[in-house]
Design goal:
With about 400 residues, this protein is mainly alpha-helical. The chain has helices at about 15-25, 25-40, 60-75, 75-95, 100-105, 110-120, 125-130, 145-155, 160-170, 215-235, 255-270, 290-300, 305-315, 335-345, 350-395, and strands spanning about 185-190, 195-200, 210-215. The chain has a 3-stranded antiparallel beta sheet with strand order 1-2-3, sandwiched between helices.
Length: about 400
Amino acid sequence: MSKQDSPLDEFSEITPYENYITAIRDKVTKKKYAGQLEMFLNPNYDWEKSQQKRKLLPEKKFAILVNNFVELIRKDPNAGKNKIKRYVMTLKQQIDDKKLNPNTSRNRLKPIKTLLRANEIDFSWYLIDRMMPKETKSEDRAYTRTEIQKMIVHCEDITDKMIIVGFSSGGFRLEAWDYFTWSDVVVFKNDDGTYKGGALRVYHGDAEEYWTHITPEFCNLMDIYKVYWKSKFFAEPLPSDPLLAQERLPYPARLKHGGVSRRVKKIVEHLGLRNNMIPGKKRYEVQLDHGFRKYFNTMLRRAKVNFADKEDMMGHKVALESSYERYEEEDFERFSEYQKAIPFLTISDDERMRLENEQLKQEKSELQKVKDDNAKIMDWIARQENKKTSDAVLPNN
């Protein structure tokens, strides 16, 4: 048997690079970590070049850098630690030069930690973490409801509206659009068939998978989008189809997070929301996509939603207990908390007024029921008293 035809040696050594890429399951995270890890590993990295104009190293060259660093830190741990310390000093200099946010700087160490863990290298991060600057309070703000309402007015099509209302309704991150399918949506209805909200599964199949919730406004918008979908693709969306489809293709190909971000950017720039940066910073007053997530967080706080439930609906891990929810409404225990925030999260003034009227009717109905129950109780008590009186005045036989 020739060497070319022989099977792969099952005992061949797995490279540090192979361990690293195997440890990262999410494609978006893998690409983001590659860029951040190259900053650390590449001695010829051009720090002055714009991030948007910079291309990643070819995979073979990147793999060589990864393998060489792991080999270095195994042979000489102090040399590896010094390299990381020098990198931290570079990050601190960037912060001093107003080129990097202190809150972002800690994320630059995550791919390095992942690389070492993937290759089972014990390493103490205590001193290096102490070298990192303290996180500061974020200076950017959330979108306001008025701004989001203006975005809806300037949406070019139903896809734009799905993006804007979906973002503000569910509070998920931009990359989540790369995962959503129609099977990830569970809607809840009132007795009269109208929507009272729904649940949305985020990062389906990933280790970070969690559930958030959506407003009746977004549920109604999905019905309109389904009509558009059927007119474009001549069929109802399948459970496995992407929640958002590209416009230019005749079949349902996913509209990924890059395309979503470009659509949002076009709308907000048209409104003039990205004309001014924070003074002394290279950041806008409102982050393009994260501004919706901040809006979601702000509205849930204003609605006094339970903190643990709020954090859970944002995908923040606040407890060690795992969730094993099924596709039944009664299992979505956080929805009752989310309902408190629905009037705050609803964008349309008309829709919000309708919800407030429905809530008022429900409260009146419940109050009337209590009054009716009290009247029945008082009537029963009165009848019992009358019966006692009647029994008391009856002559003895």
